Protein 1
Amino acid sequence: HRIAILVGGLLAAGAVALAPMLGDLTPPANSLPPGSWNRVFSDDFTAGRLDENLWSPSRYGEHANEAPYNPDKEGAYYKETGVFVADGEARIRIEPADPWIMINGKAYGWASGVMTTRGRFAMRPGDFVEARMRVPRGSGLWPAFWASPQDGSWPPELDMLEFFDTESDSRPYLSYLSEQGRWDGPTAYGDPATDYRESWHVYGMHWARDGTVTPYVDGVARPEVRKSVDTSRAMFLIINLALKEGHSPTAGQELRVDWVQAFRPS
């Protein structure tokens, strides 16, 4: 499959060796699996606004109010201004909708945001991706860092980080929906004694060429929750902050993203 490559000069000179590029991103990569790597995607959100050469602040790129991914389970719609850049971070904010918004016959009382690399960058088997993120704690908040096929089909779906309700979930989950519609997971990972909410952590995932997926957190691989993926289709990245229907979190809470980067074996 054809991979969408970043514009804006990231790959203008071809693949660049990892070592000279690490200084371009602060903080640098926390760790990488063994081997030789080229960095093929990076954004540290220092441009003062969301770089739309790298990200779309909407599901479909239409810059309009959009329904969430699970309308029957979620109570917040996505609006373009729900994603913004401040102080060198991408932020997705949850806030009451004023007035309520009707989308596809359903009224939404909350608004949030989503950012995707669809049409800009897609990961493929062999890649390692990671992001430094700060997950908010709140009633019904459902943040996720995941991937879906670049060609627009679904399933499969690869959820490398998901908190289903950050009021109760203190660790991230990994799950995979196969092309045949079978779920593997969700499976919690990370240190069981650590509360990953309201603090910065680096979340990563290695999608090996043999189809296995291993999550990383703060530079540590968690092979005990490794999944086997049966697709080789290119998958674009998605970061969103959903809200479970029927919940009312504190207005203004934010999913914060310090940087995102991806590496490909050289």
Protein 2
Amino acid sequence: MNEMNPSTHAAGKPEAKGGAVRFPGEWEPQARVFVSRPNHHETWPIEADLEAARREWDALVEAIGEVTPVTDVAELEVPVDDAWVRDTAPLFVETTGGGLHAQCFKFTAYGYKWEYERDAKVGTSVAAALGVPSTLHPLGLEGGAIESNGRGVAISTAACTLDEARNPGLSRDRLEAALAESLGIETLVLLDAALPGDHTDGHIDNTVRFVAEDRVLAVEPFVEAARAELEPLGIAVDALPMAEPWEYTYPPHVPDPGTHPLPASYANFLITNGRVILPAYGQPTDADAASVLRKAFPDREVVTLPARHILIGGGSFHCLTMQLPVGSTIRA
């Protein structure tokens, strides 16, 4: 992994509000990708599965590092409870001056399902380590819960953003105002889309993903619902295959033992510089999903890597990563 060369940290809000910031699309140039190695023994309760998940993570990091610098947040001396940096790291926005600002949101461990005191501080700690100006917002929001087209349109789910556990009493109007100020979102689409076994209550990065300003991929159970909401906005919706459902038996010593479905989704791919990295689950549909991604990204290499053991923890490649857009505020 590569060393960081941060500039001087300067706290404070972005230069202006209400459309003065822009939340870039994931396909835009990236300076770096942040990761965190699987480590939590409740998330991967069987040691052999944890070790296998770490091997899959090593392959993911290697594939990213061939095209984009990679930094484990541990290298920044940022402690974590779990590996899902997509949900704990900042969302980086571009300001009117062309720099970057780290928007940090309240992390509630998916509605206080777990007590993750370290993860609640990852966002501000990463921003401070980078020297990127940051703001900590009272809104409970995980990075996996929101998708941006880079031009003011965002997709999320009401089950995550308007969740009473995450954001008690929050109205849609107040949610939209908060996202307009923090991320420059002008149009918010809330879908009803969640996979069985998804402990996040319906993160959008498991179901509907922007692949361009005017196009998304949606896993097959949610294609028609996505089309009804997005096509009137001029956004095309293409179908992404759904992986075959499968289950995992958690041992008696974890908080929720027994056999549970796993949220296997091809939508949890990672877009980085010149490459898209697709999780594979050892199913015939792996090849079908790769074919769809090649059509969606004709100018990028599609790399397929095993993710079956990572999935035991409840997520996949997108959940384990957070991109840092290219910006003038830092030197990556």
